[in-house]
Amino acid sequence: MVHDAPVDRTQAAHSSSGAPRAAGQRSARLPRDERRAQLLTAAQEVFVANGYHGAAMDEIAETAHVSKPVLYQHFPSKRELYLALLDSHLSALTDLMMGALDSTTDNKERVQAVMRAYYRFIDSDDQAHRLVFESDLINDPDVSSRLETFNKAFADAIARVIAEDTKLPLLEAQLLGRGLAGMAQVSARYWLETDGNLDLDVASDLIYRLAWRGISRFPKET
Fold it and tell me: Rounded to the nearest 5°, which phi and psi values hold at 14?
């Protein structure tokens, strides 16, 4: 395999004529965490545009303005790069959902907050939802297990609130938690297809009202 030529350090910022560095030249050395973040950002752009199978490490390196050896130093394979990106998005989505659940002790407001948070994640400009929910690697065991871990953790968190409020058995509350989580995900992905014809807050409030009118009818134990 032929590697890219190393960067000429004497021309890192300007050419001999004093012109700014050309866009195709490689970026300067960065701290490891910053470089990793840069590579993940570039990978996201390429994966979203081309899908996992259509993405190439050459293109990711070029998008990040680094040599392929630099890319492989941080991520030994395209699959490891994709999984790192998926882990990052699932962690952010988990924080977002748990933050919505913990934002209030009023369960009606909780349902509203969760629905709105899900819709905002789906609406994000970085299109992270496409890597999480629409990947062409969805049947890969490591990908599917990560998604199931997220879905279970989120649904179980909802179920704990339901069980405490309604006094339903935990297994029944978990089923309801899965139902509410699925309602948020499926409706938000469908809403995205309306291309902005329905306001985000209007759409998420419609689903929140539907969910609340259902879940609020489960009585507390008397």
Answer: -145, 155
End-to-end CA distance of the chain: 72
Per-position pLDDT tens, the chain of length 222: 434 444 443 343 343 334 433 434 455 577 788 999 999 999 999 999 999 999 999 999 999 999 999 999 999 999 999 999 999 999 999 999 999 999 999 999 999 999 999 999 999 877 888 888 888 888 899 999 999 999 999 999 999 999 998 889 999 999 999 999 999 999 999 998 888 789 999 999 999 999 999 898 886 545
pTM for the predicted model, two decimal places: 0.77
Residues, the chain, total? 222
Q: Which residues does 163 contact at the CB level (< 8 Å), separation at least 6? A: 169, 170, 173
Backbone angles phi, psi at 117, to 5 degrees: -65, -40
Going from N- to C-terminal start, the domains of the chain cover: 9-76, 85-215
Superfamily of domain 85-215: Tetracycline Repressor, domain 2 (1.10.357.10)
Which of the 8 DSSP states describes residue 2? P
Contacts (Cβ under 8 Å, ≥6 apart) of 115: 184, 204, 205, 207, 208, 211
What secondary structure, in 3-state letters, does 17-84 show?
Answer: CCCECCCCCCCCCCCHHHHHHHHHHHHHHHHHHHHHHHCCHHHHHHHHCCCHHHHHHHCCCHHHHHHH
Q: What is the CATH number of domain 9-76?
A: 1.10.10.60
Of the candidates 161, 163, 149, the one whose C-alpha atom is nearest the C-alpha of residue 114 is: 161
